[in-house]
Amino acid sequence: MLAALASVPDMEYQPVHLQKLLFLIDENCADAIGGKKFDFHPGDFGPVDMAIYDVAKELADLGLLKIKRLKPRFSNYSLTPQGLECGKLVLGKLPTDIVEYITDVVKWMRRSYFDQIVQAVCREYPEMNRDDARRMKAG
User: Fold this and answer.
1) Residue 128: is it exposed, middle or buried by C-beta count within 10 angstroms (0-12/13-18/19+)?
2) pLDDT reported for residue 40
3) How much is the pLDDT for 9?
4) Confidence label for 136 from pLDDT (cuts 50, 70 and 90)
5) How far is the C-alpha of 10 from the C-alpha of 18, rounded, in Å?
6) CA–CA separation, 114 vs 96, rounded Å?
7) Is residue 137 predicted with pLDDT exceeding 60?
8) 1, 55 in Cβ contact below 8 A?
9) How far apart are CA 67 and CA 121, in angstroms?
């Protein structure tokens, strides 16, 4: 998670960014990062793994991530200086094409709205949209 967030260090990440970014990394970079890190399942807004928030909390407890509560069930996430340093160390060990992929995804997310992110991911991975997954099972 730290490496992914360090790819564009000045960004404040919303839950949709964390969920979809880490999903795309798991799907497209697993071989380069030692396998998938999360267990995503279909959700109302595409792939979701609630364990991401547990990891974020652990990183915050270690002083590596800031969690800014905006509403009772909504937070934004950003790296602390220590988290950025750790994330850059991990990024430096990844193949260049993987770092470029992660950076490109984050930059795309930065300029996209919630709906655009969810729709793009669900279009590419329809089995991760709860409604599409139900239809696939029924069909």
Assistant:
1) buried
2) 98
3) 85
4) very low
5) 15
6) 28
7) no
8) yes
9) 25
Cα angle 45, 51, 53; round to 5: 80
Cα 63-86-6 angle, rounded to 5 deg: 95
* Dihedral angle of Cα 1, 8, 45, 94, to the nearest 10 degrees: -50
13-52 pLDDT per residue, tens: 999 999 999 999 999 999 999 999 999 999 999 999 999 9
Average pLDDT over all residues of the chain: 93
Give the 3-state secondary structure of residue 1: coil
In a 3-state reduction of DSSP, which class is residue 67? strand
C-alpha distances out from residue 101 to 34, 70, 72, Å: 16, 29, 33
CB 31 within 8 A of CB 122: no
Given a cut of 50, whether residue 139 has pLDDT beyond it is: no
What is the rounded CA–CA span in Å between residue 137 and residue 132?
A: 9
Q: Answer left, alpha or beta for residue 63, where phi above 0 means left and psi between -120 and 50 means alpha.
A: left
Q: What percent helix, strand, coil does the chain show, rounded to 5?
A: 60, 15, 25
